[in-house]
Design goal:
alpha+beta; six-stranded mixed β-sheet; four-stranded antiparallel β-sheet; 18 strands
Length: about 475
C-alpha cells in the first residue's frame, strides 16, 4: 500500500486493512491467546520467570516481523525495544509504547473463567491483560508485522518500546531513559494504552493525570490485644485510622490538605471547547451500579475525573475480618492512599503536603509510618490536538468510524509517559480502544475482537498516513 495523501486514500487503506484482519483472524487470535497465557504479573516476585518468558515471546514475535530487537535487562523486568529504520534518516520516526505486564488477579473466586486461560464469550475475550495492555499491544505488533511482511518499505521508521513494569511504576524503563536516549529519539510518541467512551465513538486522549501513592500504617502495640482486657486503655489503631482518614476531605468533597490546590488552575475555555465532555449519568450508573457523588460538589462528574485533582483511599486493613468473631484490638492498621494530579502540580510537593497533614492529625498514642510507593510519583501530561501525529491519527479514526474523531481526557495515569516523551524528544499521541466496562484491574477483564480489528487497522493506517 502506498503512503496516503487524501481522505479517500486513507479510507481505502483502512477498508483494505479490515479485510486483511478478517482473512488472518483465526491465526491472530491463536497468537493473542498464547500471549495472554503468560502470567506476567510484575508486582509479585513469584511470577518473575513468567514475566521473562513473556518478554522473550514478544521479542520472538517482533524478530519474526523483521525488526531488530533488544532486551534491556536490569534488576527489574526487561524492556523489549524493537526497531525498523529502513525509511531512512530523512523520514519521520514513530515510537510506540505498550506494556506486557499485567495486574494481579485477586480476588480469584470472582473470575467466571481462569484468568490466564483466555475464554471467548460472544465477541469478548476474557483474560487478565486482555485489554490492559496485552490486547492493545498485540494489535500494534500485528499491524507492524503485517506492513513489514507485505511492503518492501515503509514511509516511516518504527520503534517499539514495550515494558514489563507499567503496573508497578515503570522503574525498569526509568533506568534506561538517559542511557538509551539516542535510541529512543523520535518525532512522534504513540501511547497505545487508553480508551474511548463507547464502541462507536472514535477519540484521541489529550491528557492524563499524574499520580502519587503511599502506604500509611498506624501502630499501637507490639501485637494484637484482648479487647476486653485492654479496651478503653489503649488507642485502637482502627479507630485512629478512621479518624485520620476522615480529615482528608471536607463536606464539599474537596481535599482538606493545606496547599493541595495551590498550583491548580482552571482549564482555558478555548481548550475545553475542543474536549468532548458528554457524560450520561444513567448509563454510568447502569454500567457500574455507582452514583456520581464522590467528587467536589461544585464540579461535574466528568470535570472531577479529568481536570481536577483527587485523593482516594484505595485500601484499609487492620484486625480480624474473617468468619466468626475475634475480639481484638489490632496492633496496627494500614491504609493505601493515592492522589491523581493535574498539570502544574508537583508530585514531590503533594507528597510532602499529604505527609505533613497525616502526621499532624495522627491521634495521640499511635505511631505513624508512611512509605512511598512507586518512587516519587509522576506529573500530569497534556498534549495538543494540532500536532502531525494527532492529526494523522484523527484522520484514520474518522475514516474508520465514518464520523469525526473526538478529543477526550483521561483520569488515569501512565507514569512513565512524561519522562519517555522528554527522552524521545517527541510529540505525544495517546490513544486506544479500551472501554469503561472492560474490567481492567478487576476480575473478568475482557476485550472485544472487533476492537482488536479496529486497532490493527488504525495503527497500520497511521503508519501509512504519517508518511504523507
Amino acid at each position: 500500500m502506498p503512503s496516503t495523501s487524501s481522505s479517500a486514500e486513507i479510507s481505502a487503506n483502512v477498508k483494505q486493512l479490515l479485510k486483511v484482519f478478517d482473512t488472518e483472524q483465526e491465526k491472530l487470535l491463536q497468537e493473542f491467546f498464547d500471549f495472554l497465557r503468560f502470567q506476567s504479573v510484575s508486582s509479585e516476585p513469584e511470577f518473575a520467570p513468567e514475566v521473562l518468558r513473556c518478554a522473550n515471546w514478544v521479542k520472538s514475535f517482533l524478530e519474526d516481523a523483521g525488526m531488530k530487537v533488544e532486551l534491556w535487562e536490569s534488576e527489574h523486568h526487561p524492556v523489549v525495544f524493537a526497531t525498523w529504520l529502513g525509511a531512512g534518516p530523512d523520514k519521520p520516526t514513530l515510537l510506540i509504547y505498550n506494556h506486557y505486564d499485567v495486574q494481579p488477579v485477586d480476588p480469584l473466586e470472582l473470575w467466571e473463567s481462569p484468568p490466564f486461560e483466555p475464554t471467548l464469550r460472544g465477541n469478548e475475550i476474557y483474560a487478565r491483560g486482555a485489554e490492559d495492555n496485552k490486547g492493545q499491544c498485540f494489535y500494534v505488533m500485528s499491524a507492524v508485522r503485517h506492513l513489514l511482511k507485505t511492503n518492501k518499505s515503509l514511509p516511516v521508521n518504527i520503534k517499539l518500546c514495550i515494558e514489563g513494569e507499567e503496573e508497578t511504576g515503570s522503574q525498569g524503563i526509568g533506568l534506561f531513559l538517559d542511557k538509551k536516549k539516542e535510541q529512543l529519539k523520535a518525532d512522534h510518541l504513540f501511547i497505545v494504552d487508553l480508551g474511548i467512551h463507547t464502541p462507536d465513538s472514535p477519540a484521541l486522549t489529550l491528557g492524563v493525570r499524574g499520580i502519587v501513592t503511599m502506604t500509611v500504617e498506624l501502630i499501637g502495640s507490639y501485637g494484637d490485644l484482648h479487647s476486653g482486657t485492654h479496651g478503653g486503655v489503649v488507642y485502637n489503631p482502627n479507630r485512629g485510622m478512621a479518624e485520620l482518614l476522615a480529615t482528608l476531605h471536607d463536606s464539599e468533597g474537596r481535599v482538606a490538605i493545606a496547599g493541595f490546590y495551590d498550583d491548580v488552575f482552571d482549564v482555558p475555555a478555548a481548550e475545553l471547547q475542543k474536549i468532548d465532555t458528554s457524560f450520561n449519568e444513567n448509563e454510568f450508573r447502569s454500567m457500574f451500579g455507582a452514583k456520581t457523588t464522590g467528587g467536589e460538589k461544585k464540579f461535574s462528574a466528568i470535570e472531577s475525573a479529568w481536570i481536577r485533582p483527587t485523593l482516594e483511599i484505595n485500601g484499609i486493613s487492620g484486625g480480624y475480618a474473617g468468619e466468626g468473631f475475634k475480639t481484638v484490638i489490632p496492633a496496627k492498621c494500614l491504609a493505601k492512599i493515592s492522589c491523581r494530579l493535574v498539570p502544574k502540580q508537583n508530585p514531590l510537593k503533594i507528597i510532602e503536603l499529604v505527609e505533613k497533614h497525616l502526621r499532624e492529625h495522627t491521634p495521640g498514642g499511635l505511631d505513624i509510618v508512611i512509605t512511598q510507593n512507586h518512587g516519587s510519583g509522576a506529573p500530569a501530561l497534556r498534549t495538543s490536538s494540532d500536532t502531525a501525529g494527532v492529526r494523522a491519527a484523527a484522520d484514520v479514526l474518522t475514516a474508520l468510524f465514518d464520523i469525526p474523531c473526538q478529543y477526550i481526557l483521561s483520569g488515569g495515569s501512565i507514569p512513565i509517559v512524561p519522562e519517555l516523551a522528554k527522552a524521545a524528544g517527541a510529540e505525544v499521541v495517546m490513544m486506544g480502544f479500551g472501554l469503561p466496562d472492560d474490567n481492567i484491574h478487576a476480575p473478568n477483564e475482557h476485550f472485544g475482537i472487533d476492537r482488536i480489528k479496529k486497532g490493527f487497522a488504525t495503527m497500520a493506517g497511521i503508519i501509512l498516513t504519517l508518511g504523507r
